[in-house]
Amino acid sequence: MTSSSDRSPAVDVQGSKSYEIRTYGCQMNVHDSERLAGLLEEAGYVRAPEGSDGDADVVVFNTCAVRENADNRLYGNLGRLAPKKASRPGMQIAVGGCLAQKDRDTIVKKAPWVDVVFGTHNIGKLPVLLERARVQEEAQVEIAESLEAFPSTLPTRRESAYAAWVSISVGCNNTCTFCIVPALRGKEKDRRPGDILAEIEALVGEGVSEITLLGQNVNAYGSDIGDREAFSKLLRACGTVDGLERVRFTSPHPRDFTDDVIAAMAETPNVMPQLHMPLQSGSDTVLKAMRRSYRQDRYLGIIEKVRAAIPHAAITTDIIVGFPGETEEDFEQTLHVVREARFAQAFTFQYSKRPGTPAATMENQIPKQVVQERYERLVALQEEISWEENKKQVGRTLELMVAEGEGRKDGATHRLSGRAPDNRLVHFTKPDQEVRPGDVVTVEVTYAAPHHLLAEGPVLGVRRTRAGDAWEKRTAAAAAKPAGVMLGLPKIGVPAPLPATTGSACGCD
Q1: What is the pLDDT of residue 160?
Q2: How far is Cα 357 from Cα 483, in angstroms, rounded to an integer?
Q3: Which residues pair with 419 in a beta bridge?
Q4: How far apart are CA 444 and CA 247, in angstroms?
Q5: N or C end of the chain, less CB within 10 A?
Q6: What is the DSSP letter of 48?
Q7: Running DSSP on this structure, what letter comes out for residue 271?
Q8: pLDDT tens-digit readout, 366-424
Q9: Residue 270, CB half-sphere, CA atoms under 13 Å: how many?
Q10: What is the pLDDT of residues 468-496, one digit of tens each?
Q11: DSSP strand E in 314-403: where?
């Protein structure tokens, strides 16, 4: 079903009903969940305490459809909530995101206790759909076929006081044979540059000091507005925003990665020396079968140009192992590119069928044991390279933006954690003076591990920032609230690549 209405009006919720959002998949979904949180809070809901595990009055699943077992995971989680819902009159469950866009009415047939199903194009309708389901006492399934409102026009409850996502486009015009995202997110639609910059300036005014430009294919920005250099112009414009210290973007596509973007990265001081460039395969034969419109030489040529212009850039990537028809020779070409490119980190995935994609019905599907063996060889090689590249950081003096929730063992080690300009994670000795998330510290790297760095000596300098002030203000306000204040989302902090176990490997997250 489709809707002709625009953004939903706020719903008057009696009392303080709580909500929990469970997010799966890519950065776009994480950002959408911030919008969903903002919509619910505007409608009068309050966030359930962290770890409520389904005890909220409203539980929202923001789903991903790019993994083969995505539906099994969703229905398993829904099944575990069924007895809780049966024992709690008034509790509601909503399912949105890519899997909802794909499965539609199937969800309420398999899980009839679900109250609301909404898609990727009409997230703004969630509060009114919940209210309608409550009043009518029946499930509401509403899937829009095209975008009703650009997500950035919706209210937002950001997870970080000092770092923020900024969507510059939604949708994707690519036709990669392994990816279902374009079918669920639609064709690329770009925001006007002025609207993007206005949002960035507003965020900086609130204390944000780092932004990550977000799009399914971020450097194709401009195709919808007829300007092939629009993305590089946008990066340069970000450099003129006073108070904006760090600019990142994800994820680009090698097809659209042009020299003007490299120049803009190198010449704009607040654009960070970091690049996530999905490879997927090093084999020209496999790339052709994937409908990836670049070949090995083109990819390595981009890496060479980036390193020439930005010598200290950290380059990360996505790689799929075991795509249908991949031979041992094809896999060796992938290993060759990994050795040549020397990625700081690679998010590696074993190919799995995405229902509805051309690759799912291709001949020569690779046996699981072969895929596993190749995957282990690739991971071992990349671990070795990541460690070697990190060892080159030892002795360097780095400015870190202090992060929240990035160091899992910080409490035991009496350390804090932060992100270097190239987005490497660095754990550092806690200084005597107060340091807040969003503040900037200067440290010297003393030790390297494959996935993080240590700065075990004394902190060389601390710079208190407006971002730290914003974090402190938000923390104090949250502590004053009687209800729980944490949402069931990954900590965004300084946005970083997703762990390999949760990424999509589609190059468009």
Answers
A1: 85
A2: 44
A3: 401, 425
A4: 23
A5: N
A6: P
A7: B
A8: 999 999 999 999 999 999 999 999 999 999 999 999 998 888 787 788 899 999 999 99
A9: 19
A10: 999 999 888 777 765 433 333 333 334 44
A11: 314-321, 345-350, 397-402
The tally of CA atoms less than 13 A away on the side-chain side of residue 456 is 7
- C-alpha span between 159 and 417 (Å, rounded): 18
How far, in Å, CA of 425 to CA of 491, rounded?
14
Calculate the CA 326 to chain-centre distance.
28
* Token pair of 101 as six digits: 């866009």
* H or E stretch at 70: helix 70-87
Rounded distance, CA 42 to CA 302, Å?
45
What pTM was computed for the model?
0.79
CA 454 to CA 444: how far, in whole Å? 9
Both tokens of 239, joined, read: 């450099």
In 3D space, the residue among 507, 509, 505, 506 whose CA is nearest the CA of residue 348 turns out to be 505
Query: Which residue shows structure tokens 């590119």?
Result: 337
Contacting residues for 384 by C-beta, under 8 A, at least 6 apart = none
CA atoms 358, 279, 99, 43: torsion sign: negative
Which runs of consecutive H residues, i.e. helices, occur in 88-239?
98-103, 105-110, 126-136, 181-185, 193-205, 230-238
Cβ–Cβ under 8 Å, residues 37 and 151: no
What CA–CA distance (Å, rounded) separates 467 from 315?
A: 27
* Burial class (CB within 10 angstroms; exposed 0-12, middle 13-18, buried 19+) of 465: buried
CA distances from 333 to 279, 307, 324, 339 (A): 12, 21, 16, 10
Helix (H) or strand (E) holding 329: helix 328-341
Say if CB 247 and CB 200 are below 8 A apart: no
Query: And the tokens for 128?
Result: 């009114």
Sequence-separated (6 or more) residues with CB below 8 Å from residue 401: 162, 163, 209, 210, 245, 246, 418, 419, 438, 439, 440, 467, 494
The answer to whether 340 and 301 are in contact (CB under 8 A) is: no
